[in-house]
Amino acid sequence: MPLLVLGQGRDLASERGVECPGDLPAPSDPDLVARARAAKATLGQQVFVLGHHYQRDEVIEFADVTGDSFKLAQQAAARPDAPWIVFCGVHFMAESADILTGDAQTVILPDLAAGCSMADMAAIAQVDDAWDDLVDAGIADAVIPVTYMNSSAAIKAFTGRHGGTICTSSNAATALEWAFGQTGGVGGTGKVLFLPDQHLGRNTAVRDLGLSLEECVVFDPHRPHGGLTREQLQAARMILWRGHCSVHGRFSVEAVEQARRDIPGVKVIVHPECQYEVCEAADEIGSTERIIQTIAAAPDGTSWVVGTELNLVQRLSQMFPAQQIAFLERSVCYCSTMNRIDLPHLVWTLESLVEGRVVNAIKVDPDVAHWARVALDQMLALPGVTSKD
Ligand code: 13P
Ligand code: SF4
């Protein structure tokens, strides 16, 4: 399948103080696999490698656990005996792992430039200003923040300070029901400020909770008062932050319609970070873990087109050869920041640990970590939330 390679978002390497590894192995080194195996074997139980489903195959091969962002957060917390957690994913996931693990553990992100363009669309100063706007509109007391895992630790801490919860794509409906339940229920008058992915917020509120599109407004942090009048804020039930995923935002309704024309009987499954119209046109929506489980449970011979990150879709077609699996849209490519973690970075990270050097440690400020943990713990305590949701 031809691929168009597109840039996604800012490269925050310099802003995050990236260590520039002079001794990063060359990608052409034929011994990379053997070196990674040897280093991992030497480290044994001391290292625990987590791999998000969007990681490259060459990295997933060395993951002790693979999963969606919720399962990986749970797994990071479930291995208190491992001093080093190597997180093959993106920066916000490694931050969450640092918050959920013990003080004696160190979380490592093999390439500090592996950020997330969506998470970067909500800066803490913008979110604090937005809250002031809600106070000025006289509605802040009725607003509970619900923040997607794809956000900085500072935004998670804001959520904890204001009595809200974190959610992932696998438990967003439960999180929203809980949040509305704090202020009189879905049928009441309370409101949710949903950060930073407008699409996950809208899809969940409308498709799962039955709110109307008119009850959702979009708060644009680049416009005064979010570009909303006092009356619009007062009438809204869902205040959606104007953020999106640069990968999933590109899938289109036209691609779904084209797939239905090209492949009779095809089933379309997409991630809830896709636009509302795309989710409406699809047959199924789900988190990365849910997409895998749905396809695994389907009968042989089922045809799928999948609207999520390309590394996962390619892996799905290898995992389930008895099903026909295609990528939803040709002009959408890999998540460029997920792809920054490659085998040379993993080998460098593991070999550095063998030599007694901890590189690219992710350490969240203690006060931020405290309040972010409050919001993460609220998510982990939501009723019925498990990694299999
Ligand atoms: P999951 O929570 O489904 O793993 O998704 C994370 C993500 O970054 C999707 O773009
Ligand atoms: Fe962020 Fe989108 Fe990449 Fe997920 S796929 S890590 S939301 S940029």
Give a description of the structure.
The protein is an alpha/beta fold. The protein folds into 3 domains: 19-116 and 338-359, NadA-like (Rossmann fold, 3-Layer(aba) Sandwich); 119-245 and 372-380, no CATH class; 248-327, NadA-like (Rossmann fold, 3-Layer(aba) Sandwich). The chain has 15 helices and 14 strands. The chain has helices at residues 32-43, 57-60, 69-77, 91-100, 124-136, 153-161, 172-181, 198-208, 230-235, 253-262, 276-281, 288-297, 310-319, 343-354, 366-380, and strands spanning 47-52, 65-67, 84-88, 106-108, 143-148, 165-167, 191-195, 216-219, 238-241, 267-270, 284-285, 303-307, 324-327, 361-362. The strands form 3 sheets. A 5-stranded mixed beta sheet has the order 2-1-3-4-14, sandwiched between helices. Helix 6 (153-161) crosses helix 15 (366-380). The longest helix has 15 residues, at 366-380. It is globular and about 65 Å long. The two termini are 32 Å apart. The structure holds 1,3-dihydroxyacetonephosphate and iron/sulfur cluster.
Features:
Rossmann fold, 15 helices, 5-stranded parallel β-sheet, binds 1,3-dihydroxyacetonephosphate, 14 strands, 389 residues, binds iron/sulfur cluster, alpha/beta, 5-stranded mixed β-sheet
Care to give the gist of this entry?
With 389 residues, the protein is α/β, with parallel strands linked by helices.
Strand order across the largest sheet: 2-1-3-4-14
How many β strands by DSSP? 14
> How far from one another are the termini?
32 Å
Shape: globular
Radius of gyration: 21 Å
The assigned structural class equals alpha/beta
Number of self-contained structural domains: 3
> Helix count?
15
Helix content: 25-40%
| Poorly predicted spans | 1-17
- Largest sheet features: 5 strands, mixed
Q: Mean pLDDT, as a whole number? A: 92
Could you tell me the strand content as a percent range? 5-15%
Order of helices and strands: HEHEHEHEHEHEHEHEHEHEHEHEHEHEH
